[in-house]
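> Could you send the Chaperone protein DnaJ prediction when you get a chance?

Sure thing. Input:
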Amino acid sequence: MRNLYDVLGISRDATTEDIQKAKRRLARATHPDVAGGSKEAFQAVEEAARVLGDPETRLLYDATGHTPHDGLDEAAEGIVWAEVGKAMMSSDKPERLDIVGLARNSISDTIQTARSNIKKLTAAKVNAARMAGRFRTSLPNDPIAQRFAKIQRDADAEIESTKAKIKVFERALQIAEAYEFEREPTPSATACDGWVFVQTPRTW
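Output:
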């Protein structure tokens, strides 16, 4: 699926107003009744604007690359499959690994990292607010205050995006926990042509 931001020709930090402006402009240009327009292009613009124009669906898309049309389970299933594939590619003998266990551990690590990031972002917000209050100026626009305010806004947006990501990964973990992998036992000794070589202590 094409990147929704690219469909609208906007950046990832575009405002709601930017999204609506892009929708109006592109809706006129891609309308099937207009020369050069098409039903498919028009629908792609409508879908992109619908997803990115709603804060919650935009957060889900930013965090996972999926849209509500895909559904939470579809997004989570994609994560599980990706982790299974990564685990299988980590060895030339994947049948000897606990593929599901590795996938679950990786998903759990992602969730823990995301939760840790939320704590760091929250601390950054608090610190920015505390430091901003220490600056005094006679300038009417107060550029330093504006920078601190942007730090807080960016932190808020990142926190919400991370929460949406955690929700999907938690569902992925639930799915992964419903599986087990029957792995092949790892040989305990080196066998060759029916002989087993066992190293014994050397005596002098």
